[in-house]
Design goal:
- By secondary structure, this protein is of the alpha+beta class.
- Helix content is 45%, strand content 16%.
- The protein contains ten helices and eight strands.
- A hairpin with an 8-residue loop joins strand 7 and strand 8.
Length: 294
């Protein structure tokens, strides 16, 4: 669920055929319905004859179902089983459930946890109710790393070398939009250094304001990232900075402690929120994101 493998002609361990087959499965997105070979080819940048062979093979293996009437495909139960197996084995998803639900009730925002998938963050846990209007993302949804609160929190939790590599990939992908995105990423770095969380106020979606906090574990997984968002009229920038952000920091701290077996869920996070607000800035301005990406 992390980064795309580097397809090097010198990497003799890399199986290109397998990579292409997985790219076909990756082409299907929530609410897509059916996809034809031509649509899959456009999404994967693979030749249509190659796609035809791959969809035929994946259908024979039970990962795709063909709908002859439309000459299109949909994901089959075998593919869904992979996703459910992954979710079932994600401890952070299950441990965070009650904490996310509690923060959702306290703030009225949608609260999610996600992990990196190439240049996006993919949701694998989501808490929202019928009162959480305007935020329709669910498990399996993707948000961009560069502009979303969840993505920026993840980005600033990475070691410097990994962050520089990811930023280079983002720059190559977004082209002329990079300068504006870079400025937002740098502001996020300054905010996380000062407050422990990042903000995205209308930068991913005009009408959505959100905060993000990363979770780093010592078990070799992650980093993961949490967000809490709502329509802009509900979460003002002042509310993000002074209320929602500190609450999310407190929640993630509790989850981190719970995953190490040190605490049980508390009925209220007020003390943690108060402690977070007392934190002093931990440094000055964040330097340019990385040399050479200017």
């Amino acid at each position: 669920m992390k980064r795309a493998p580097k397809k090097s002609a010198t990497d003799r361990s890399f199986v290109v055929a397998l990579s292409r087959g997985l790219d076909v499965l990756r082409a299907f997105r929530p609410n897509d319905g059916l996809l034809g070979n031509q649509e899959i080819a456009a999404r994967t940048n693979l030749p249509k004859p190659t796609i035809s062979r791959l969809t035929y093979t994946l259908t024979k293996l039970g990962y795709l179902t063909q709908v002859p009437r439309f000459e299109k495909y949909q994901l089959a139960p075998a593919a869904m089983a992979l996703g459910y197996a992954a979710l079932a084995n994600m401890g952070v998803r299950h441990v965070s459930d009650p904490y996310r639900d509690q923060l959702m009730r306290e703030t009225g925002g949608a609260v999610a946890v996600g992990a990196r998938d190439r240049l996006s963050m993919i949701y694998f846990g989501q808490s929202r109710s019928e009162l959480t209007v305007g935020v329709l993302l669910d498990v399996g949804s993707r948000v961009p790393i560069a502009t979303s609160a969840m993505g920026r929190a993840y980005l600033w939790a990475l070691p410097e070398e990994e962050r520089a590599e990811l930023l280079h990939d983002i720059k190559e992908h977004v082209g002329h939009r990079w300068p504006k995105m870079r400025d937002g990423i740098e502001r996020a770095g300054e905010t996380v250094a000062k407050h422990g969380f990042v903000m995205s106020a209308g930068e991913w979606h005009n009408d959505i304001h959100a905060v993000g906090v990363a979770l780093k574990l010592n078990d070799g997984t992650g980093p993961y990232a949490f967000n809490c968002g709502a329509p802009a009229f509900k979460f003002t920038e002042e509310a993000l900075l002074n209320d929602i952000g500190p609450r999310l920091v407190a929640m993630v701290r509790n989850i981190e402690a719970a995953m190490t077996g040190n605490v049980v869920m508390r009925k209220s996070q007020n003390k943690e929120i108060a402690d977070t607000k007392k934190l002093k800035p931990s440094g000055g301005k964040v330097a340019r994101v990385t040399e050479g990406i200017g």
